[in-house]
Structures are given as structure tokens and as C-alpha cells.
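call fold(seq) -> C-alpha cells
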Amino acid sequence: IQAAVDRARGSAPVQDPTFYDTLADALVRVFALGAAEQMAARSEETMTGRPHPMLIKARVFLSQGRPSKALAELQRSDATVSRVLQATIMLRLSRIPEARKLVEQALKRAPQDVDAKLVEARVLVAAGDHSKAEQRLQRLLGKRPKDARVLTALGDLALARKELAAAQRYFERATKDSTALEARLKLADVLL
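ret:
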């Protein structure tokens, strides 16, 4: 990794914030969280007001198990993706009304945003509104029939309904995508 970083530094200007963004993203992926946070800070120093460095810092804080710090970082940005991530955190903290409000704000700004639609469906499941969640997810599936995220969300809905056979089918379909780690883990849980 260090050799790739050195090569990138040699070809990218140090005043380009996207260079630091890309580097921070790569560092998060290899769990070099301290270095990722430093690169996000450099990106922010290079060009203030952009949401990407804030999002990277929030991912770092979430990876460190610090959701309140991640929320504080995300609240600095008014971007749709920031609202979606805040809603996801609120959902994981079982703060359903706040999650619903945030995802509604995101969808108002970007009604076609797939991530926002997926979080909306997960909020509906958590709130017990399974039929509305299913409508949203089936509509998404019609447009994205091989999207592992949509199939995994449908599997989660089936689990919430205690429909293990349906959950297994959705998770199996999702695992056709080799990157669908979440679906693989959930499929293993269903099979056990």
C-alpha cells in the first residue's frame, strides 16, 4: 500500500483535495483509521465546505464505535448522503422517528436516490410497516433486479415477518453478487 501511496503522491498535486479523499477512502478500507482521519482533515483544509471529508471522518468514527461523534460530523454537512448516513445511524440506535425524518429530508432533495430509498424501507420495517416497506422494495427491485442491496433488504423484511424460506431465497439471489458480504452473513444465519 505504501508504494501505491508514494506513486500517487508523485503524480497528484498536494493541493488537490480529491487526492486526499481517494487516499482516505483507501485507508478506511484497510482499517488504517487514524491515517484516514488525517487525510480527510487535509482534504478539508485544502478546500473547505465539501461533504466528502466529513463523510470519511464519520465512517472512521463509526468504525471506531463512536456513533455520536459520527453524527456530529455528519450534521456539519447539508448533503443528501449525509442525511442518509445520519438516518442509518439513528436506525441502528433504534431512534426510528429521527431516522424517518432524516430519510424523508433526503428523499425530498433526491427522490431517486437508491440509498435513501433503501434506508426508507429499513425504517419502515423497523417501524412495523411491512406492507409499505415491501411496496418500496419491490418497486426498487423492478428497476434493479440484480441489486444485492435491494435483495438483502427484502431478505431482512422476510426475516422480520418470520418467513425464513423467503429470506433464504432473497439472500441466495443477493449472494450472486460476489461483493455481497452482508447477504452472505445473513444467509449463513438463516441456514443455521
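The chain has a mean pLDDT of 87.
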